[in-house]
Amino acid sequence: MAWLDYVLPLFFLFPLAAAAVVVVALRSLHDARVRSPLDAQPMCEPGQGLRDRLDRAFATLFLNASLGPILTLAPLVYGMGRMVFSEQQNWLEWALYGALCTLLALLVSLRLIRDYQRIQRLKLGLACELAIGQELERLIRPEAHPYYVFHDVPADTFIIDHVAITPYAVFVIEVRARTPVMAPSGEILDSVTVEHERLRFPGWKERKPQRKARQATSWVRAWLSRELGQQVPVHGILALPGWKVVREVQSADLDVVDGVGLADSINQLRSGASLPSEIHDRLIVALRKRAQHGGSPLANDI
C-alpha cells in the first residue's frame, strides 16, 4: 500500500517528540516567583512586575532555543524515514524537505533574535525600576517620619510602579526606561525636553509615558476618594533614569525627573498642611490591602 510509505516514517519522529515533551515539561525552571511562608501571598519587591515578565521571557527563550532545533530537524528525519521505506527516491521531494528545514531554521532564528531584544529591554526596565526603588527606600524612617512606599500596586487594568505616602500627600511614581542615543561623533545624547503633552528625545518624540503617568495618578486619586470617602492630595511623578531632564514648560499635575535625589525632592514637595493621622493610617491600610489582593492586572509598557 502506497500510503504506508508516508505513514511508517512517522515512527522516526517519536524520539524528537519525546525530547519536545521533556522540554515543555521543564519550561517552568526559570520561574523565580516565590510566596511568603507567613501568609502565602506572592512576595512583592521593587520591579516585581518586570521580574515576572523577565522570567516569562527567559522561559520563552528556553522553549524557542530547545524546540527550535527539534522542529528544524523534523522534516529531515521524516525524509530519512521515507528513504528507508520508499523504493524510488524523488529528488523534488528531498528538495522540499530541505527548503522546509531552511524555512524553519530562519523562523527559529528570528524568534531567538526577538527574544534576545525583548530580554534586553526588560533588563533595562528592571534596572531603572530598582534604581528608583532604592531612591524611594530612603523615605522610610522611624515613627517620627511616617513615610510608606508600595511597589507594583495593581490598578484595574495596569500596574502602578510605586506609590509613596508622606505626611503631606500621596505620590504616584511611574518609571520609564529609554536608551540614550550615540551621535556619529561618539557623543552620548542623553537630554530629554519636557513639554506639557510629550517628551522630546534625541531623534524621536513620545506622548505615551506622560499620558500613562497621568492616568495612574488620576486612578489613584479617584480610588482613594472612594476608599476614604474624601479627597486627599495626590501628585504624579514620571522618572526617566539616566536622562538629563530639560523642562520647557512646568506642569502642575506631573513632574518629570531623572530620579537622582528623588526622596529629597518628594520631601520638599509640601503643598498644604499635614495629613491627619487617621487619614494617613487609613491610606496605608487601603494601599496595603490593594497591593496584596488587587488581582492580576495587565503588565505595564516599559
UniProtKB/TrEMBL annotation:
Source organism, top-level taxon: Bacteria
Keyword terms, alphabetized: Membrane, Transmembrane, Transmembrane helix
Q: Which InterPro entries match?
A: NERD (IPR011528)
Q: Where are the transmembrane segments?
A: 6-26, 57-78, 94-113
Pfam entry (one): NERD
Q: Which residues form the NERD domain?
A: 125-241
Any idea what this protein is called? NERD domain-containing protein
Originating species: Halomonas huangheensis
Upper lineage is:
Bacteria, Pseudomonadati, Pseudomonadota, Gammaproteobacteria, Oceanospirillales
